Amino acid sequence: MNSGSMDSNSNNSNVVLGQYLQQSRFARLIPFDSFANMFPAGTSTDLIKSIYNQLILQEERKLADIQRNIDNKFNEALQELYDKPESIPTIESSKVDILTQCLSDLSHQLEYEVAKQKDEVDEELSILDAKLETLAKIDIPNYHDQEIRDAERKCDKLTKIINQI
């Protein structure tokens, strides 16, 4: 097998996939400032940033899984073509059809995964909006303000410790 060709083809597929997925990235769809504006005034910026970063990290993990799956299927299809080059003097149209069908199926799978991920992000944001609405409606007496600020500071400290890990 010609691994240089496999690497080149894999890199090409990575570029195409990367460009396709870049359109629907969470950070691109919802900039941090817009995300932060969804929280009630006085919410710790560190806490908001931590939540935002966790959502991005979850997205990156899912995209890495999708990328691995696509690479594996793509490389399997290419491997079929490379396995017996001596016995196949020219590429049979059936092999090209198989590869084309495989790539088409992967394209549909990718579209489905991106749409599913967008739906999941929308659902999470909807849940977050509902929680923020509820928080905004809560009337907290002034004498509890100091306790809340103390709790926020403690949460900020915990967030900083967790981020350092």
From TrEMBL:
Pfam families (UniProt xref): Cnl2_NKP2
Taxonomic superkingdom: Eukaryota
CC per GO annotation: kinetochore
UniProt name for this protein: Uncharacterized protein
Organism of derivation: Candida metapsilosis
